[in-house]
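Re: beginner question about structure tokens

> Can someone show what the tokenized structure looks like for a real chain? I only ever see the sequence side.

Sure, here's an example I had lying around. Input first:
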Amino acid sequence: MSAPARVKVQDLKKIQKQIKKNHELAIELFNTGNSDAMYLASLISEPTKMTKKELQNWAEKAYWYMLSEYPVAWTTAESNFGWELALDWIKSDKENVASSGWATLSSLIAIKKDEEIDLVKIKELLEFISKNIHSSQNRVRYTMNGFVISVGAYLKPLLDKSKEIAKLIGKVNVDVGGTSCKVPFATEYIEKVESKNKIGIKRKTSFC
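And the corresponding structure tokens:
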């Protein structure tokens, strides 16, 4: 499906400021199937009120990457079911569900304390990526690459491991649909964060 016409995010954020947070309205908006309404839904959502069923519904209905890899992933990461759902979604044959899973994991790594993260599992996922990224679906490749970067940037104990995997996977080719977006080169991105002495500095929220 081609990217639908969209309202500018800054305009959606103006509406968000007026509404603030409203769980019930967020659910209604997402169910409309309108891309802008669905994006706004995440901005006014109350992640800790989201049920597992509601989050699963969002992942299934997010029909393009600007929904699945951003608002759905952000909301899920701040919910009570982030890890559980993300680890399930990355196994999906549906491209947008799987990419949402990897994006959710990246957000979780960015906001959770190291002691709240299963580092052994993260290492397993890095190894999985090193063997499977180039044969994975288009947007899954993009979010796998983003996961490697997130591990390197936010998990200091796994910095060396992330750099090792980044070097192994090298350049990741992704069809970005004729946009000006570029796929970050994981090795360079991690080294840039390291040069600024910002490795391991967590974010306060997954939302941008």
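Each token stands for a local structural state, so reading them left to right follows the chain. The two ends are 25 Å apart (CA to CA).
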